[in-house]
């Protein structure tokens, strides 16, 4: 009976952590979308409507985050989580840096955008690149359809891929790594944007210094969004990203 109760508690805790991590992904998606919205050179009625939808979604996911954090209770998991997250650079854990770099986020370059987010983003949204990252959008040179966004996020499903979940959960909740016995704070990798060919962290950070800096400019991205807003379709596309817990009307 005790073993059965323990297994039920463990499954419940895992479910709450999965929901928490999924909500944090939604928060990063919204916050990085908001970052782009703030930098737009235009303020048409359509853009302001889109901006309002982004802010509403961000507000909603902050509340969802607190719901799932509260459900962790006050036990060992919650205490470990709060201790690890008391370090504002927690998300620069080497496992999470590698994950961002391999997904061709800003940790794959020398821009330093991810590290800067601990100072510039909403606290709950500080973290690595979502598909809405303005820097990534500029450098990849193309936009993604709602269906493409959904498929890309689903490729790394925290609720469906146990191997991926285990790695991200250990780093995000506990500050640990399966491949290291180092203390959590020793696994934080800062200054990746300062790496060079002689810096051993270059390989970890995935820094590629061959990117064409004359690629898709932020002005081009802004113009694309302006055109979408004027067509009245961008708001619908934003809602089609296929993330979990992303319905502000729920």
Could you give the topology of this structure?
Blueprint: H1 2-39, H2 45-70, H3 76-85, H4 94-102, H5 113-120, H6 134-140, H7 146-155, H8 162-174, H9 201-205, H10 218-231, H11 234-239
Helix pairs in contact: 1-2
Tertiary shape: globular
Characterize the main sheet.
none
Low-confidence stretches: 1-10, 193-222, 231-250
Give, in order, the helices and strands.
HHHHHHHHHHH
Strand proportion, as a percent range, falls in under 5%
Structural class: mainly alpha
Mean pLDDT: 77
Number of strand segments: 0
Q: How much is the radius of gyration in Å?
A: 19 Å
Number of separate helices? 11
Number of domains: 1
Oligomer: single chain
In helices, the fraction of residues equals 55-70%
Distance between the termini: 37 Å
Question: In summary, what is this structure?
Answer:
58% of the residues lie in helices and 0% in strands. The protein has 250 residues and is mainly α.
Characterise this structure:
The chain is mainly α and 250 residues long. The chain has 11 helices and no strands. The chain has helices at 2-39, 45-70, 76-85, 94-102, 113-120, 134-140, 146-155, 162-174, 201-205, 218-231, 234-239.
Keywords, separated by commas or semicolons:
globular; 58% helix
